[in-house]
Amino acid sequence: MEDDFRPQVKKVAVALGASLTEQDIERMPRELRTQGNFNYSRFLEYMRQFQTSEQREEAIKKAFVMLDKDGSGYIEWNEIKYILSTVPTAAPSAPLSDEEAEAMIQAVDTDGDGRIDYREFSDMVKMEKKPRK
After folding, report:
1. pLDDT tens profile 62-106
2. Averaged pLDDT score across all residues of the chain
3. Contact 81, 73 (CB under 8 A)
4. Residue 32, class by beta-carbon neighbours within 10 Å (0-12 exposed, 13-18 middle, 19+ buried)?
5. Which residues are 75's β-sheet partners?
6. Cβ(65)–Cβ(122) under 8 Å?
7. What backbone phi and psi angles, to 5 degrees, belong to 116?
């Protein structure tokens, strides 16, 4: 059985600065709105086509503020753990370990301070997918 992720699609769209109607969601590729697990990466990629650079920048700012739960100006490991624990999945999953959260931060943390600032977050979101060799 496939899950219907319409509520998640609407919430993520709002976080990106877009308001989607039921018709808009129906026009989306089926695999973006119904599948075993909601795929945020594919959804964000799909939504990029509907945004101007100003809308995209504003959406990135909104998403960063939403993820920066304590308002420190940084996304830290405890916030990564919280964010990923609230993402719905079809199958039960183990909580993210401290080491896994730290590894996620290190993948994006270009200045090595152990946390993700707005510039690092923005660069990660804007990063174009490059084919693997």
Report:
1. 888 988 989 999 998 888 877 777 665 555 566 667 787 788 888
2. 75
3. no
4. middle
5. 116
6. no
7. -105, 120
Which amino acid appears at position 84 of this protein?
L
What is the DSSP code (8-state) at residue 130?
-
Distance between start and end Cα atoms, the chain: 35
Residue 117, beta-bridge partner list: 74
Distance (Å, rounded) from C-alpha 67 to C-alpha 113?
18
Q: 66-89: string of b/e by CB count within 10 Å (b at 16+)?
A: eebeeeeebbbbebbbebeeeeee
- The verdict on pTM exceeding 0.70 is no
| pLDDT number for residue 111 | 94
Q: Which segments within the chain are labelled E, that is strand?
A: 3-4, 34-35, 74-75, 116-117
Residues 101-133: tens digit of each pLDDT = 788 888 889 999 999 999 998 888 877 544 444
Tokens standing for residue 18: 């877009």
Show the tokens assigned to 35: 């599948």
